[in-house]
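Dear support,

I submitted the protein below through the web form. The confirmation email said the job was done, but the results page showed an empty box. After a refresh the structure appeared. I'm attaching both so you can tell me whether what I see now is the final result or a partial one.
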Amino acid sequence: MKSSTKNLIIGTGNILLSDEGIGIHIVRELQRQQTIEKEFFYNTEFIDIGTSSFDIISHINNSVTKVVLIDCMKADGYLPGTIFKLTPDDLRKRQEEKYSLHQIELVDTLRMISIIEKLPEILILGIVPEEINKFSTKLSDNITEKFPVILSKIKREIADFLIN
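What the results page shows now:
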């Protein structure tokens, strides 16, 4: 990782299981937009972490001040495309509920990092998927249709988090 990096935006998920990969799709699109909106993404590194939350350990060190993690998040009773804004404490408090495997692994990963390093500020953005059991590298039709709105809301949350 570059020593000047102060912010990380990390997408997690399985790109082979339709909406399960929405975190990756979002991060890839944000990275594409980085060339246009340089001020918004100043001092930010984009990372596609896939399904291995433990790989986050290799990216977080004392030069990182803020981290945004983006993943799909199953949440019964909510419409696909709904965005949840969470902190690591929210995940720890609600471990008994049915979050995706990545988020449970994420709690353990953050605990491990906090033993070695001071944790940076962390924002977790979870997006409710429609389809996660279908082998496809494409998002479901419903999420594809909502993608521009989801992306816009995610960018707004990231901007608020990085600026404050």
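Response: this is the final, complete result; the empty box was a page-load delay. The CA atoms of residues 78 and 128 lie 7 Å apart.
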